[in-house]
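Predicting holo structure, flavin-adenine dinucleotide bound.
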Amino acid sequence: MGTAAGFDALVIGAGVSGLTTAVCLAEAGWTVGVVAERPPAQTTSAVAGASWGPYMVSDPRVLGWSERTRAVLEEIAEDPASGVRLTAGLEAAPVVAEPPSWATAVHDFRRCQAQDLPGGYLTGWRYTLPLVDMPRYLEYLVRRLRSAGGDLNFGIHVSSFGEVGGRAGLVVNCSGLGSRTLVPDGGLYPIRGQLVVVENPGIQEFFQDDVEDEEPTYILPHGDNVVLGGSAIVGSEEMRPDPATAEAILARCAAVEPRLKGARVVAHRVGLRPTRAEVRVQYADEAGVPVIHNYGHGGAGLTLSWGCAEEALGLAGSCGTAGQLRSG
Ligand SMILES: Cc1cc2nc3c(=O)[nH]c(=O)nc-3n(C[C@H](O)[C@H](O)[C@H](O)COP(=O)(O)OP(=O)(O)OC[C@H]3O[C@@H](n4cnc5c(N)ncnc54)[C@H](O)[C@@H]3O)c2cc1C
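Done. Tokens:
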């Protein structure tokens, strides 16, 4: 496999879940290796928009994990090279609705007057959220992991936990949708998402609608570019961008923010959200290999990343301290 043997923990997966968990373990003193089929820039995580907010995920633990992640991202945002920026903006619903509890908990949350909302929206609120330029943020996590001594190897497909079990005291499974075959987990399914990236015509604030249907609308500015969304098609695995979907995204976003009309398209992005009835953060003995699972984050992998990674670290600590597992 081309990896050094003898890690305290071997993390499978180099998306936001794998890298964040690896950083947590390495900064807590564990020797950590990461193996992944796809490098960070080619993962679902690199496709995400990405804004903080527990969307398209159901699990009673989600609120705690999300809150923890927001606190960590707010600290990380102090580093301008991290790709994380605290950004003010508007969230709106097309019906009369109460904002979710996780939104009202944000310190500068305030409700809007109807006349301050774009056409077609009846309820809205403003707050400041971490917006994350995911390709840059994944590079930041890689740098942070390397400086904590982490080892990364890409282009490696793991077919079973037994294949890597001898290389570390503990295996941490952050393989996202790959867990369908690796575990195997029949309860995991994709929700396809498509985004359009355009040149930024001067937008500083985010907009997102508070709907969970197949056509969410969001506008996420990242400096020179703006990420426009989106779509959510359950079960679809089509990785080619659909031109009609892209046109519909551009039209919906331009209806909210007229400056986007005619904006130059820079890229189309498609990804499959790894979705499950509940996020799986859990210890399991997989045919004699101690494994901590951390996958199935749906449309909220960034939002849950630090909360889930710290929970995985806690589970790892209950299995044994760094070094003990390897020698024991
Ligand atoms: C269009 C879109 C918009 C989104 N917007 C947001 C947002 O605004 N906010 C938010 O919080 N979330 C958002 N998400 C969701 C988020 O992207 C996912 O929840 C998150 O990326 C999942 O991360 P992960 O690390 O678990 O999986 P992935 O990023 O898919 O990484 C999985 C890793 O495991 C590796 N792997 C898989 N199988 C194997 C194997 N057998 N052997 C070796 N390696 C393997 C892969 O190669 C990869 O490196 C969005 C998703 C999409 C598609």
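The chain has a mean pLDDT of 94.
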